[in-house]
Amino acid sequence: MFELKVTRGKKIRFSPHQISWHLQHPKNTFILVEALGPRSVNRFQMYQGSRVRELVACGLVLEPLCLGLEACSLAFDSA
Fold first, then answer.
1. Where are the alpha helices (DSSP H) in the chain?
2. Residues contacting residue 46 through CB under 8 Å, at least 6 positions apart
3. Segments of the chain scoring below 50 in pLDDT
4. Res 6: pLDDT
5. Which residues contact residue 48 at a Cβ distance below 8 angstroms, ignoring those fewer than 6 apart?
6. For residues 74 and 59, what is the distance between their CA atoms, to the nearest angstrom?
7. What pLDDT is recorded for position 40?
8. What is the pLDDT of residues 15-36, one digit of tens each?
């Protein structure tokens, strides 16, 4: 399961329901974030859904599972 998010800054917004869902389903859930803007070197970043609380607190400063769309794709090809 993927949740797709788009942000223009470093913060990523989640509703309480979205946070709860990821906490109740900690395995095989991922959050793919597209960062828009001129400073976005790696536009796509992927995080494990189980890290949703950290992602809310830290935003895009949090170390992602994968950087870039191609790297995210390769992560699933090798699984």
1. 16-24, 52-58, 69-77
2. 30, 31, 32, 33, 64, 65, 66, 72, 75
3. none
4. 94
5. 29, 30, 31, 65
6. 24
7. 63
8. 999 999 999 998 889 999 998 8
Q: What is the dihedral of CA 45, 10, 63, 31, to 10 degrees?
A: -40
Q: Residue 59: which region, alpha, beta or left (left: phi > 0; alpha: psi -120 to 50)?
A: left
From 71, 72, 54, select the one nearest 63 (Cα to Cα).
54
Alpha-carbon dihedral 39, 3, 78, 67, rounded to 10 degrees:
10
What is the rounded end-to-end Cα distance, in angstroms, of the chain? 15
- Kind of pairing between the strands at 2-7 and 30-35: parallel
Please, how many CA atoms are within 13 Å of residue 48, restricted to the half-sphere of its CB? 10
User: How far, CA to CA in Å, does 22 sit from each of 18, 31, 49?
Assistant: 6, 9, 5
User: Tokens at residue 7, please?
Assistant: 């942000």
